[in-house]
Amino acid sequence: MFCAATGFGGTINTGTGRFDPERLVPVEDARRIKVYFNADRSEQLPWSFKPEQKFVSVLPGETSLAFYRAKNEGTKDIIGIATYNVTPDRIAPYFSKVECFCFEEQKLLAGEEIDMPLLFFIDKDVLEDPSCRNVDSVVLSYTFFRARRNKYGQLEPDAAEDKVQESLGFSGYEHAPKVEDRGKTD
């Protein structure tokens, strides 16, 4: 929450009140900024996931619409959730998403393919920040993971605990608590 509110570490602003109509006026005499799109996914998520466009060029203050496409290539319905980041991280406080598929978990039925919209803008205040003076390209990256819990707060039936830990990068550690030992007290 801290990172989303401050833009710290390349985390984009969301729901910060910066969506006032006067903020969404393109600065016509400003240079355009190229926003490149990247898509990754966890190995534990049998989806294909890709941006529908390589990049868009936007003016500060101008809203832009982009799309990503995801397909569940597995044989079971799966809920996924996306994390995001922007590079260089100094532009993150000015990169704001109005609507995004990453705001909620996404459930794809087995074999289902969907287009997922993203509506964003780069705040015109970026023009007043000396550290962003030479930024003319940005990379917006998303990574999809299998959601650990479904919308009812229950563990997904097809996501065994050891697979969840593996997808998070915690498998193979000698001192990692074993699933059967969790919750036991001596």
UniProtKB/TrEMBL annotation:
As for subcellular location, the record says: Mitochondrion inner membrane
Q: How does it sit in the membrane?
A: Single-pass membrane protein
Query: What is the protein's major site of localization?
Result: mitochondrion
Which keywords does UniProt give here?
A: Membrane, Transmembrane, Transmembrane helix
Query: What name does UniProt use for this protein?
Result: Cytochrome c oxidase assembly protein cox11, mitochondrial
Specify whether Transmembrane helix is a keyword of the entry. Answer: yes
For bias type Basic and acidic residues, the affected ranges are 175-186
Chain spans, region Disordered: 167-186
Please state the span of the N-terminal signal peptide per the UniProt entry.
none
This protein's source sits in the domain of life called Eukaryota
Q: Which organism is it from?
A: Marasmius crinis-equi
- What does it do? Exerts its effect at some terminal stage of cytochrome c oxidase synthesis, probably by being involved in the insertion of the copper B into subunit I.
User: Quick check: keyword rRNA-binding in the entry?
Assistant: no
